[in-house]
Amino acid sequence: MSTLRNKVQLIGNLGNNPEIITLDSGKKLAKFSIATNETYKNAQGEKVTDTQWHNIVAWNKTAEIVEKYLEKGSEVAIEGKLTSRSYETKEGEKKYITEVVCNELLMLGTK
Question: Which residues on adjacent β-strands are paired with residue 77?
């Protein structure tokens, strides 16, 4: 059961082209967001689509795959773990970010 702790699986589409960062150490970092949609009927019987956006971070080889093959609109399946961090803006305001650190990536759809 310990393998189920902090595990996230998502299927969605990229909202923008990935941002690729090469660190001084040579490691690559890919940042992108994906949208997941859930459709349901409200109390009036109308079809409603709820879209959730998820921030994704991929490192090293996975980041290289993201850089080479993914673009805005690409459909992907992501497996990873949730991480949270915070930082302070220049104005002194504290900001919180929750991201999915991608361990596995599966490209879906057609090219």
Answer: 11, 106
Tell me if residue 72 falls in helix, strand or coil. Answer: coil
Residue 70: exposed, middle, or buried by beta-carbon count in 10 A (0-12, 13-18, 19+)? buried
pLDDT digits (tens, 9 = 90+) for 15-62: 999 999 999 999 999 999 999 999 999 999 999 999 999 999 999 999
Q: Residue 68 — φ and ψ, nearest 5°?
A: -80, -35
Domains of the chain and any CATH numbers: 2-108 (2.40.50.140)
Q: Dihedral of CA 31/20/104/37: which sign?
A: positive
Q: pTM, whole model, 2 decimals?
A: 0.86
